[in-house]
């Protein structure tokens, strides 16, 4: 207990001359005085503790206001600033002490801005809530600075509105940050498009290699037939000219034999038929190439998945893997709704990856498989078609299975792969409502499974 010189240390004798006041009554008075004094001391201790807490709270609030990067203004209903922070003082070029008590309207760049804020600070409707305003403050150089202010009513303990609290940040900083973010996003989009285009060009390169090999046969056949037809037309022209000149029948017959007109006429149908067949074959190849590189990537049409697999196998083997042994077991037929070019890109990637895996050199420098082979089998799986791609390569390490479809992940040497083929294929399959998964095959090697939903209803012809 805190001692005080005002407190009596010994009981005082009762004052003389007071009738009806005996010693016991006086003792009661002294005890009451002692109780009151003890309570005063306790209240003084509690008050000192509360003062210390209040001082700590004030210091905490001051540190918060000082460290805020956003400007803060608290004003009363007349627009007089009651509290602010260092961020506002730095922006307008005035110390905090000078700002307190001044009018908040003096901070605004022009009277129109001040009138907008006045309608919010001094509302006729006392129940009006907070708003967000974009106002222009005048900075230290006198230039307008746009600030996005969140204005919230301030109320006293009885709920009466007594002013406004405004917190905001200069829009210049936000605009710069947004501009930098937008530039970074645009750069990322351009890089992504370039990488996708690069992977597409790699797939197209494999396709073109097969197309060049495939076109060579029919074009050479057509070219040879055209040269033969040209020689035949010259011989026919000589024979027809002889007939028109009205020459001797014996001369005409001799010319007919020397020019072998009968053999020529018998050979013409097969030459014409072969030329048409070669031209049609060339047209089919070009049409297949156009389907693969279709410009409208969002077009969805019924697609025969078996035909896609057969063309993909054909192009990969013609282009980069003529010795690759691929066994194709189609299974039940069915159509899916999708883009034939995109689906062929997926299948070509899977076939090409299988070839790369089976021909990649192992630790001893030898190929992973003595006779590279791939088995593709189709099956009905629920309401969709599933294609299993199993190779006889070294398989997929367990640690790589979870990352196999991640962008840029590749186990190929530098310069041999971008790590985008499987990632792009995975995205294409998902866009088609399907699934693409990878696992270790029980017989050894890698097993990729492509599942796509079957097309049903009028579009499927059912």
From TrEMBL:
Enzyme Commission identifier(s): 2.7.13.3
Catalytic activity field: ATP + protein L-histidine = ADP + protein N-phospho-L-histidine
One Gene Ontology molecular-function label: DNA binding
InterPro entries with a match to the protein in the record: HATPase_C_sf, HATPase_dom, His_kinase_dom, HisK_dim/P_dom, HisK_dim/P_sf, PAS, PAS-assoc_C, PAS-like_dom_sf
Domain Histidine kinase: 210-456
Ranges for domain PAS: 57-140
Classification via SUPFAM superfamilies: ATPase domain of HSP90 chaperone/DNA topoisomerase II/histidine kinase, Homodimeric domain of signal transducing histidine kinase, PYP-like sensor domain (PAS domain)
CDD domains, alphabetized: HisKA, PAS
Pfam families: HATPase_c (PF02518), HisKA (PF00512), PAS_4 (PF08448)
Keyword Amino-acid biosynthesis on entry: no
SMART domains: HATPase_c, HisKA, PAS
Keyword list, A-Z: Homeobox, Kinase, Phosphoprotein, Transferase
Domain PAC: 131-183
Gene3D superfamilies: 1.10.287.130, Histidine kinase-like ATPase, C-terminal domain, PAS domain
Enzyme class: transferase
PANTHER family, per database record: SENSOR HISTIDINE KINASE, TWO-COMPONENT SENSOR PPRA
Protein name per UniProt: histidine kinase
UniProt source species: Piscinibacter sakaiensis
């Amino acid at each position: 207990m805190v001692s005080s010189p005002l407190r009596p240390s010994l009981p005082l004798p009762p004052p003389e001359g007071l009738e009806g006041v005996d010693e016991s009554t006086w003792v009661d008075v002294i005890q009451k005085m002692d109780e009151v004094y003890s309570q005063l001391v306790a209240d003084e201790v509690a008050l000192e503790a509360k003062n210390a807490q209040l001082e700590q709270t004030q210091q905490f609030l001051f540190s918060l206001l000082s460290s805020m990067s956003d400007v803060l203004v608290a004003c009363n209903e007349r627009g007089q600033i009651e509290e602010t922070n260092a961020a506002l003082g730095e922006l307008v070029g005035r110390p905090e002490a000078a700002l307190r008590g001044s009018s908040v309207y003096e901070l605004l760049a022009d009277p129109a801005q001040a009138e907008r804020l006045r309608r919010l600070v001094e509302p006729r409707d006392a129940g009006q809530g907070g708003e967000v305003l974009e106002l222009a403050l005048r900075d230290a150089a006198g230039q307008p600075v746009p600030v996005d202010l969140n204005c919230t009513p301030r109320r006293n303990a009885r709920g009466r509105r007594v002013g406004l609290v405004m917190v905001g940040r200069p829009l210049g900083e936000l605009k710069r940050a947004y501009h930098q973010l937008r530039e970074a996003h645009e750069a990322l989009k351009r890089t992504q498009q370039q990488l996708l285009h690069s992977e597409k060009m790699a797939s197209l390169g494999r396709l073109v290699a097969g197309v060049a090999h495939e076109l060579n046969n029919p074009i050479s056949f057509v070219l040879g037939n055209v040269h033969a037809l040209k020689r035949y037309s010259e011989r026919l022209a000589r024979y027809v000219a002889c007939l028109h000149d009205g020459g001797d029948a014996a001369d005409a017959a001799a010319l007919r034999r020397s020019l072998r007109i009968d053999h020529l006429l018998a050979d013409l149908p097969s030459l014409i038929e072969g030329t048409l067949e070669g031209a049609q074959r060339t047209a089919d190849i070009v049409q297949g190439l156009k389907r693969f590189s279709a410009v409208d990537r969002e077009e969805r049409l019924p697609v025969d998945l078996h035909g896609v697999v057969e063309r993909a196998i054909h192009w990969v083997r013609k282009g980069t893997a003529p010795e690759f042994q691929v066994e194709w077991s189609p299974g039940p037929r069915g159509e899916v709704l999708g883009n034939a070019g995109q689906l062929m890109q997926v299948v070509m990637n899977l076939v090409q990856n299988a070839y790369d895996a089976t021909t990649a050199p192992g630790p001893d420098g030898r190929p992973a498989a003595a006779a590279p082979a791939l088995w593709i089998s189709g099956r009905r799986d629920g309401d969709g078609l599933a294609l299993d791609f199993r190779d006889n390569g070294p398989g997929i390490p367990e640690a790589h299975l979870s990352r196999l479809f991640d962008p840029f992940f590749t186990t190929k040497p530098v310069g041999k792969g971008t790590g985008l083929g499987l990632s792009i294929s995975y995205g294409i399959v998902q866009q088609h409502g399907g699934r693409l998964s990878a696992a270790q095959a029980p017989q050894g090697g890698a097993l990729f499974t492509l599942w796509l939903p079957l097309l049903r209803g009028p579009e499927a012809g059912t």
